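FOLDING PROBLEM:
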Amino acid sequence: MKTTKPTICHVVLSLGVGGTERLVCAMCRYLRRNFQVLVCCLDEPGIWGRELRKEGIPVYALYRSPGIDLSVIFALDQILKDHEVDLIHAHQYSPFFYAALSRLFFPKARLLFMEHGRHWPETKKPLKNIFNRLFLQPLTQEIVAVSKEVRERLRVYEGLSKGRIRVIYNGINPPLRISAEERTALRRYWGIDHSTFVAVTVGRLDPIKNIPLFLKALVLVRQKIPIRALIIGDGPERNYLERLAVHLGLEKAVTFTGYRKDATRLMQIGDVFVLSSFSEGTSLALLEAMACGLPSVVTEVGGNPEVVADGQTGFVVASDDPVQMAAALYVLAENPFLAQKMGEAARHRFEQKFTFEKMMQAYQELYYQMLGQSPCVCLRLEDQQCVV
């Protein structure tokens, strides 16, 4: 039975552990105030999909077959009709592809395509670009990129019209800051002296994150000063990276923590956050580091240069250049006052530009615009009423 609230269906690959998936879950929980919300996963639901189900948010898994699985279009169409969906929010290209085609059978639903980040390396596919421009784009009401760089890559590698793509930066809720006493205790637990300079990174250990760059930079820095590194996360590259660290003589300097639910708490024992990726959208881990008051050293890819103010909140270095990364780490390690000043500036920049509330305000205004409705002012009451 249709309620008075508009219904939004998020279409994703899955809701396993990852930055995009975490953001989608946070959006769903927030949007329940003003909308009916459900999620369709092209593949498996994942651990976070099962958590959303426990919270009363419907999560469907379509278990897509390899290649182009046309049955997904019809399965998605049926779900849209059953829930009388008003708006589809497709996250990343494959969900966008299937969501757009499902509108051929259920045109009532408006479609928003949101691109979080891009694969690396990318190649141009002229026929795909023509298909996207002439067929999928007309089926889409709004296209959002999480950075200007992602917008440009949608134009180049997907053939979408740049003028149709708006930029809305990712945002997060500021994490809880740990006390000085807790920070000292955590460093002691991990065998780190209070005076040791610590570089930390957080993320899935995947080739696109280019952790070898981080390790090679550490080797160069350690030729001049002691430095420790904490690599928080897990993934397919972990065994290789652990072997590489031993090969580079870093076995006592680098700690691999594995996946940690308390990653944001643990990153705060660091003195600098490092992002060595080949490609990024708007990194949630980077935003968390800024919110915690950490300066950053990041590669000049994706949204990184748009998030980090080079020379003010951290340093932006060339991609895959260990010498530049080592130099930036050395400057911060040798100048604690500068590192502290950059960390404070990073926290201020986060508060001004990258909060979750700011992001969700932008999306809700866009939703209402797409639905032809006036924006609602949400009253955070137990009955979750919405006043126009």
